[in-house]
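**Polypeptide and fold**
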Amino acid sequence: MDRRRPTSSSFACSRHADISTLALLRDQGGDDDERSVHGDAILRRWEGLSHVRMAPRRDSQYTQSMTARVRYELADSIATITLDDGKKNALSLDTFTELGAAFDRAAADNAAVLLTGREGCFSAGFDLRALGAGGAEAARLVLAGFQLAARVFAFPAPVVMACTGHTIAMGLFLASTGDVRIGASGPFKVGANEVAIGLVLPAFATELLRHRVSPTHFYRATTLAEMFTPEGALAAGMFDRVVAPEEVVGAARAVAVQAAALPRAVFTATKQRVRAPAIEALRAGLAVDAAALG
């Protein structure tokens, strides 16, 4: 058994946000040069996202590591990444860093990925404490979230999302990057509520939803900021399946196992070909958003 030393972080989220926005950050100060340099660095990293190369598969049948918010478990070629901050799975800069490290491990393990949340909540969006600070800190948070979403969207192995409850704003954007998205039935909200609270939907998020949401629901989901039930999200194309809450992770794992059995090189080449137009649109949207923060 191959056990690795877990990483740790002292950051703890105490609040959550139902928002994902760039407009909030304008005119709130911060170092313009710092934001511009960071945006350029993200764009440079994005250029290589669709060309990630997989390392040889490891022989271990089960490995596990844990941080304050993100748990990684590898079993039978499936990397299960669990997001759980004990509350609403607010997405902070540290959380994005830990998620990125988990995807690094999945790539090194040549594993398909199952990304899931905690009971009742996949993620309610960006961490309000960091986002509300404005300036360079908020800019880093938003761009880091979009950069991670871009990476997951182009990830060469199968990625299955187990949306265990509320899936809102940046939580929805992250879920939308998966190859398959399975939602939990119940009194949960799914959607992007930016316009409802007076914020312009970022270009990156707009293009991501344009790719995943059905044309008949796209305007409602973006411009009208409609919040959907899980069943409504299924009809809108935000989810691919909806099952009972206690079945979400199991159903997602079954899909991940099936997808992992596909010839990987063929899967990766086809995924890149199918998603190429969307990848170009996301690259352009990320550039627009990075410029808005400059």
